[in-house]
Amino acid sequence: MTHAGTTVILIRHAERLDVAPGDNDPHLSSAGQSRARLLVHVLNRANISAIYTSKRVRTQETARPLADALGVSPLEGLDALQIKKDILQNHSGQTVLVVGHTNTVPEVMKLLGADSGHDIDEHEFDNMFLATVLGENIVRVTRLKYGDPS
Questions:
Q1: Every domain of the chain and the residues it spans
Q2: What are phi and psi of 39, to 5 degrees?
Q3: DSSP string spanning the chain?
Q4: What is the reported pTM?
Q5: Which residue, 97, 89, 93, is CA-closest to 130?
């Protein structure tokens, strides 16, 4: 089965508030909220058919402005393997957005067939990866930056 032409846009959640002791699920900071709103401008015309987020509030808040603008309800809480399977089974030939974390964004790319080497530093929030699935385990990844440098 081929999935040629499937575009997977992957980003890490935007800047979060400093983590308070005992809080492992912080909201976005004002800089993060601005970056999330910027996604509307950057991706509004990308024909995104699905948006995936984790269960964490910071990924949901990052996706919300774009999801609202597009009228798309994000799929929340799937693990990396479930995301890969859902994309290839239900969105082949389409464009989707994955909003994840420093560990899950590279993991999804690797599961799609990309080679490793797409690590995200803990202090980076401005990466955008365009993964084009050309076939079974054949993926071309382009790494871009968006918004203010982080």
A1: 6-14+27-145
A2: -60, -30
A3: ---TTEEEEEEE---BPPPPTT-SSPPB-HHHHHHHHHHHHHHTTS-EEEEEE-SSHHHHHHHHHHHHHHT-PPEES--HHHHHHHHHHH-TTSEEEEEE-TTHHHHHHHHHT--S-----TT---EEEEEEEEETTEEEEEEEE-SS--
A4: 0.94
A5: 97
95 contacts 42 by C-beta, under 8 angstroms: no
What residues are paired with 140 via a beta bridge?
132
* Residues 79-103 pLDDT 10s: 999 999 999 999 999 999 999 999 9
Distance, CA of 53 to CA of 6 (rounded, Å): 18
Asked if residue 120 lies in contact with residue 12, where contact means CB atoms within 8 angstroms, the answer is yes
Topology classification of domain 6-14+27-145:
Rossmann fold (3.40.50)
Phi-psi region of 139 (alpha: psi -120 to 50; beta: other; left: phi over 0): beta
pLDDT for 23 equals 83
Q: pLDDT for 111-148, tens place per residue?
A: 999 987 789 999 999 999 999 998 877 899 999 999 99
